[in-house]
C-alpha cells in the first residue's frame, strides 16, 4: 500500500509532477436539477461512462503519481453507480485519500453513510446553497433538498464520518453568508468550501457576483474564518488568497482578524486535474478544454506533459493585469472563469477588482 504523504509538506513546485487533487466524475446521472450544475446532469447514466474495470485502472494510475493525490469522487451523483463502494475500497487500498460528493437524495440513507465510512471514505461533502429551504431548494430544483442535506449531515456526524459543506455563492444567497456560517457550525464539519460561480453548463444562465461583490464576500468569509470552528476555503476564487495575504500583512492593530494564512497557488491544471465520466481529461471540471483521453493515454503522463497543462502552470503565460500582479504566483486568477468569459484560458481574471501595484 502506498502511504499518503504529509499534506503540510506539499509545495507549489510539486505541481509540475503531481496534482494535489484529482476529481473523477464517476457518472453524470443525478436525481437533482441544480441551476448551477457544471455537468448538466441527467436522470440516466451515459452508456459510455467508464466501466468498473477502467475505473479501477484509472485509480491504479493515480496511485503512480510521484506524490499520490487526494481523490474526489464526484458527478452527477456518485451513489448512482452500483460499483461505487468497490471503487472506494480500491482507492483506499491504493493509498489514495478519497472523498465523495453525493447529491442530497434518498440514495444517501443512513446505511449508505455507514457503508461509505467503512469502505474507507476520508470525507463526504454535502452542498448547502442557502440558509433556508426556500433559497436552497430553488437552486437545487427539488423541494425538500434542504431538509435532506441537513439530515445527511446529522447522520454523518452520528456515524463518525467527517464532512464538509460546499456552497456556491450567487446573488441569490450572497446576503446569507453569515447565516450560512452559523447554520453549518451546528454540525461538526471539517471544512466549508465556498464556490464562486463559473458560467459553464447550466451555470451559464445563472448570475454571478460582480468583482466588487467578490471583495465584500472575501471580507465576510475572512471574518467568519476566525469566528467558526471549521476551516473555510474558496473554489474558483484564487484571488481570495490575495485578499487574505493582504490582511496578514497589515499590522496587528489594523488587522481585522488575527489568524495566519498560507497559500498553495493551486489553480485549474495547476495542482488540480479532472477526469470526466467517459475518460476525457481536463484542467478542472470548470474548464472544458480536453488535454487527454483515458484509457488511451496514461493520466500521469497527460498531467506532466500536456502542453496546455504546462502552460497553465506557467505564470508567465498570464495576460492582462494578472501577468503584472505581484500576487500572480499564489493567485493567478480563475483560469476557468477567464476561459468561460473570453475563450482565452490565460486572460486576466474577469471578477477581480484589485489593481496591481505597478498599475496603480
Tell me about this structure:
Helix 1 (52-62) links the parallel strand 1 and strand 2 (70-74). Helix content is 31%, strand content 12%. The model is unreliable at 1-13 and 258-262 (pLDDT under 50). The chain has 360 residues and is α/β, with parallel strands linked by helices. It is built from twelve helices and ten strands. The protein has a single domain (18-299), classed as Aldolase class I (TIM Barrel), CATH 3.20.20. 47% of the residues are buried. A ten-stranded mixed β-sheet has the order 7-6-5-4-3-2-1-8-9-10. Helix 3 crosses helix 5 (145-159).
Rg, alpha carbons: 19 Å
The H/E string reads EHEHEHEHHEHEHEHEEEHHHH
In percent terms, what proportion of residues is strand? 5-15%
The number of helical elements comes to 12
Count of discrete structural domains: 1
State the helicity in percent bands.
25-40%
* CATH H-level superfamily: Aldolase class I
Gap between N and C termini:
53 Å
Q: Indicate the structural class.
A: alpha/beta
User: In the CATH hierarchy, what is the class?
Assistant: Alpha Beta
Q: What CATH architecture label applies?
A: Alpha-Beta Barrel
Q: What's the CATH topology label?
A: TIM Barrel
Largest sheet: 10 strands, mixed
Bulk shape: globular
**Mean pLDDT level:** 90
Query: In total, how many beta strands?
Result: 10
Domain Radical SAM core: 16-231
Pfam families: Radical_SAM
Cofactor: [4Fe-4S] cluster
Protein name: Antilisterial bacteriocin subtilosin biosynthesis protein AlbA
Amino acid at each position: 500500500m502506498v502511504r499518503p504523504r504529509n499534506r503540510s509538506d506539499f509545495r507549489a513546485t510539486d505541481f509540475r509532477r503531481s496534482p494535489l487533487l484529482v476529481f473523477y466524475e464517476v457518472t453524470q446521472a443525478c436525481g437533482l436539477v441544480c441551476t448551477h450544475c457544471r455537468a448538466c446532469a441527467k436522470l440516466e447514466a451515459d452508456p459510455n461512462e467508464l466501466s468498473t474495470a477502467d475505473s479501477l485502472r484509472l485509480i491504479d494510475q493515480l496511485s503512480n503519481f510521484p506524490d499520490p493525490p487526494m481523490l474526489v469522487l464526484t458527478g452527477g451523483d456518485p451513489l448512482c453507480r452500483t460499483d461505487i463502494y468497490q471503487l472506494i475500497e480500491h482507492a483506499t487500498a491504493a493509498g489514495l485519500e478519497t472523498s465523495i460528493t453525493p447529491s442530497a437524495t434518498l440514495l444517501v440513507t443512513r446505511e449508505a453513510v455507514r457503508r461509505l465510512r467503512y469502505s474507507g471514505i476520508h470525507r463526504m461533502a454535502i452542498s448547502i446553497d442557502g440558509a433556508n429551504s426556500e433559497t436552497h431548494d430553488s437552486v437545487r430544483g427539488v423541494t425538500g433538498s434542504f431538509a435532506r442535506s441537513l439530515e445527511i449531515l446529522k447522520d454523518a456526524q452520528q456515524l463518525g464520518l467527517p464532512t464538509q459543506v460546499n456552497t456556491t455563492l450567487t446573488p441569490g444567497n450572497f446576503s446569507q453568508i453569515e447565516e450560512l456560517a452559523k447554520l453549518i457550525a451546528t454540525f461538526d464539519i471539517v471544512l466549508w468550501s465556498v464556490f464562486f460561480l463559473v458560467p459553464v453548463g447550466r451555470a451559464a444562465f445563472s448570475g454571478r457576483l460582480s468583482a466588487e461583490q467578490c471583495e465584500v464576500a472575501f471580507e465576510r468569509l475572512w471574518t467568519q474564518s476566525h469566528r467558526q470552528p471549521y476551516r473555510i476555503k474558496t473554489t474558483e476564487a484564487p484571488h481570495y488568497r490575495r485578499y487574505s495575504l493582504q490582511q496578514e500583512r497589515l499590522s496587528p492593530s489594523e488587522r481585522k482578524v488575527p489568524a495566519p494564512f498560507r497559500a498553495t497557488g493551486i489553480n485549474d491544471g495547476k495542482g488540480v486535474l479532472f477526469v470526466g465520466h467517459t475518460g476525457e481529461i481536463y484542467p478542472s471540471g470548470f474548464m472544458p478544454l480536453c488535454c487527454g483521453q483515458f484509457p488511451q493515454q496514461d493520466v500521469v503522463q497527460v498531467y506532466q506533459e500536456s502542453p496546455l497543462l504546462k502552460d497553465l502552470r506557467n505564470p508567465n503565460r498570464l495576460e492582462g493585469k494578472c501577468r503584472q500582479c505581484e500576487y500572480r504566483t499564489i493567485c493567478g486568477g480563475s483560469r476557468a472563469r477567464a476561459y468561460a468569459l473570453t475563450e482565452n484560458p490565460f486572460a486576466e481574471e474577469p471578477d477581480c477588482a484589485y489593481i496591481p501595484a505597478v498599475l496603480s
